[in-house]
Amino acid sequence: MLNILRTNAANTDFIALVKQLDAYLKITDGDEHAFYNQFNSIDNLKHVVIAYLDDNPIACGAFKAFDASKVEIKRMYTLPEQRGQGIAKFLLQELEIWAVELGYSSTILETGKRQVEAVNFYKKCGYISIPRYGQYKAMENSLCFEKKLLKNEKG
Predict the structure, then answer these.
(1) Side-chain half-sphere of 6: how many Cα atoms within 13 Å?
(2) Nearest-angstrom CA–CA distance, 27 and 5
(3) Fold of 2-148
(4) Interatomic CA distance for residues 109 and 125, integer angstroms
(5) What is the residue extent of each domain of the chain?
(6) How far apart are CA 28 and CA 24, in angstroms?
(7) Lowest-confidence range among 25-34, 53-62, 66-75, 101-110?
(8) pLDDT tens, 19-30?
(9) Model pLDDT, residue 63
(10) Contact, 20 vs 77, CB < 8 A?
(11) Which SS3 state, helix, strand or coil, does residue 45 take?
């Protein structure tokens, strides 16, 4: 049975999943990994979701406030053997619902061009391309997306 837990970055299952995500990104980001990694600290993430299948952590995601109306989606990861089953979509929807509950009206995110599956996933989930923002403005590998959220957001 699939369960979703709302928690924060101190959760040990989240920390373990993020270590696997970082190992994957170190390979796909190549020489740019150190640049991206400096923006991926989990220390201040207060809004984290973890998917459990039969009590085993299999996927995670988080968000942090970007400004008064937007949150930035961070640290989305699903174990490779669990991909393709809609788990990431379910987690992303939970993050969007939580953001709406807290009064936010949109989400933004950054992913890399080399993360083809992630790019396709976000587009499929209703995210549209936006200009690179913040620290990603000069990064040719970065793709940025946004999604407007509805008060009755269901995904």
Answers:
(1) 12
(2) 29
(3) Aminopeptidase (3.40.630)
(4) 13
(5) 2-148
(6) 7
(7) 25-34
(8) 999 887 776 656
(9) 98
(10) yes
(11) coil
How far is 115 from 84, CA to CA, in rounded Å? 15
Mean per-residue pLDDT for 31-52? 75
Query: How far is the C-alpha of 49 from the C-alpha of 91, rounded, in Å?
Result: 7
Structure tokens at 150: 């509805």
Tokens (6 digits) for 136: 């990603």
User: In the chain, what is the straight-line distance between the N-terminal and C-terminal CA atoms, in Å?
Assistant: 21
Tell me what percent of the chain is helix, strand and coil, each rounded to the nearest 5.
35, 30, 30
Q: Which residues contact 60 (CB under 8 A, 6 or more apart)?
A: 13, 14, 17, 18, 21, 48, 49, 50, 51, 75, 76, 77, 91
Q: Which residue has tokens 């996927």? A: 59
pTM of the model: 0.89
